[in-house]
Write a structure and sequence with these properties.
Shape of chain A: globular
Structural class of chain B: alpha/beta
Radius of gyration of chain B: 23 Å
Strand content of chain B: 25-35%
Helix content of chain A: 10-25%
Structural class of chain A: alpha+beta
CATH class of the largest domain in chain B: Alpha Beta
Number of domains of chain A: 2
Largest interface: A-B, 43 and 46 residues
Distance between the termini of chain B: 49 Å
Order of helices and strands of chain A: EHHEEHEEHEEHE
Strand content of chain A: 15-25%
Number of strands of chain A: 8
CATH superfamily of the largest domain in chain B: FAD/NAD(P)-binding domain
CATH class of the largest domain in chain A: Alpha Beta
Oligomer: heterodimer
Number of domains of chain B: 3
CATH topology of the largest domain in chain B: FAD/NAD(P)-binding domain
Number of helices of chain A: 5
Amino acid sequence: MKKVYVNEDWCLACHLCEYYCAAANSGAANMVAAFRNGKKPVSRIQVEEGDKVNFAVQCRHCDGKPCVRGCIAGALSIVDGVVCCDENKCVGCGTCVLSCPFGCVVFDEANHRIQKCDLCLKNHDGEPACVQGCPNKAIVFEER
Amino acid sequence: MRYVIIGNSAAAIGTVSGIREIDSAGEITIISDEKYHTYSRPLISYWLEGRVSDKNIYYRPDDYYEKNGVKTVLGKKVTKIDTANKSVVLEDGLSVPYDKLMVATGSKPFVPPMNGLDKVHYHTFMSYDSAKAIRSELKDGMKVLIIGAGLIGLKAAEALSEHNVDITVIDMADRVLPSILDARAAQKMQRHIEAHGVKFILGTSAEELTEHSAKLKNGSTVEFDMLIVAVGVRPNTELVADAGGKVERGIITDQTQKTSLDDIYSAGDCTVSHDESSDSEKILALLPNAYMQGEVAGRNMAGRESYYLNAIPMNAIGFWGVHIISAGSYDGEEFVEETESTYKKLVFRDNRLVGYILLGNVARAGIYTSMIKEKIDLNEVDVDLLKQKPQMMMFGKARREEKLGGIVR
């Protein structure tokens, strides 16, 4: 299965992936519209910055899937290997935040729910927004 | 193969998943004394609050049973496991034969003896029906008394605060949420909840109940129109105990989730688990635990060896917008950091993280949970970064590559 991977040697910590992710998942038509209304949309990818190294982290769609198994609402499910969240069912309890070993589930406080990477299945054709937007090609979408 | 599952919540659904990983043809029957399609028990407070609709309280889609080849017998209680004939007997006398049986009977509300309680109309808060009963009796301006400031009692309080009622919570413990919080975090949460109009009377209990009032041991009296008893839960172990299975505080299983009885498995809140973080036996009444135990049991029932390991107490919950995530054991060397609105406690023992409490800022808490479960030695991480916040940066490059899937070369 193709997943998003990050080359930490190339990540510049520019955080552009976070902006592309947030805009792509905001439902808005474009970046300007996504950020214009005053509320900063939630990014499902997060950049960690260090002294010597930076990298972005997002859902690994891992084998264990403790988030899906532990979901109290039955909101998380696996669709063709991709962990997806039914936003109408999620109550934002945070059990998936408690369970995710990579810290890849983020709260969407304004809507009382969580958000997580679904590889842009619903909003992009082919390639996730973070991958498309990375100026240094540190983020790739590939089979491993 | 005939699989019978007693229970219809998380552990039962996990069992179906475990069985169906291996055996797509075997006959599965779910029997429950509740009449509903599988629903999420922890969502009853959200339903009462009005945030979850009648439709969204269900744990799985409408066509779940059909898609998974599950027959259901709903609204009927199992009264006996007949191990000699390998069948379960229902309240109407009907018996259902099994080759492999799952006992996923969960827990029931614990109602301690209180003077006068037998003459008072009261509610518990554990089932969809109990939430519906509360909802149907709610009236504007009502005084509600909740006995129990634990997870269930406070979730009930939060839900009811969306209605126009006056809420008082009493607890014998001197603080709220004693099962998951330390004294300091509890104080913060109590203040936060009080700011939303809920009154607390802690460190005392009801001495005498009459129809509309509770006389407390501290001498005061609380008037109420509705009483909710949410003191705690007790596992439903009777079926296994009566059949001669080993039961202590809960049903005893091995790591495959098999009970001491042949072909009988058990999972979820009715069982005793091994808490890896404190190396002790505990009832871990948590939905993820129930589901994953069920899954392991299901695989074993279908003939594939599987073990349930690395269980720890863990909890994610929130009240009026403030999240709490906690896990593991609180016995060890502490690191505490606090701001006006947040609290963080990390507990270290044997050179590893064994427990934590995060309140207010709980982002990425699962990284801490995984450190406890994987028993990662502190020599393998940057401890300063660990203390700062949960982050993948604290792991060395090699471990990070392994966790995140490697780098592009």
